[in-house]
Amino acid sequence: VSVVKARKYMENGCTAYLVSMDAIEQKLKPISEVRTVKDYADMFPEDLPGLPPVREVEFGIELIPGTAPISKAPYRMAPAELEELKKQIQDLANKGFIRPSVSPWGAP
């Protein structure tokens, strides 16, 4: 609300409140200082040891024959977000936790 509009509102009998705000910088705790992580340290390793063991059942999704994949563009990201995403994907691929999709339904 501009000063002119605020003055008009007050002249017309509207109640006005004055507020003063200060920006407070919140510092994030390192994950190691979070109480739950401390209590269950064995459940939160620094690095994952690897993939889980191979299962007896191979997961798959049965498709209706003749169904065509839906084409939809990915949503936009800020350049810094995209760079971080690429870094994390590359890190997970290097560790063997993920691999490129071969599905026609996968993301581009």
From TrEMBL:
Signal peptide: none annotated. PANTHER family: LDOC1 RELATED, RNA-DIRECTED DNA POLYMERASE HOMOLOG. This is Reverse transcriptase domain-containing protein. It comes from Nymphaea colorata.
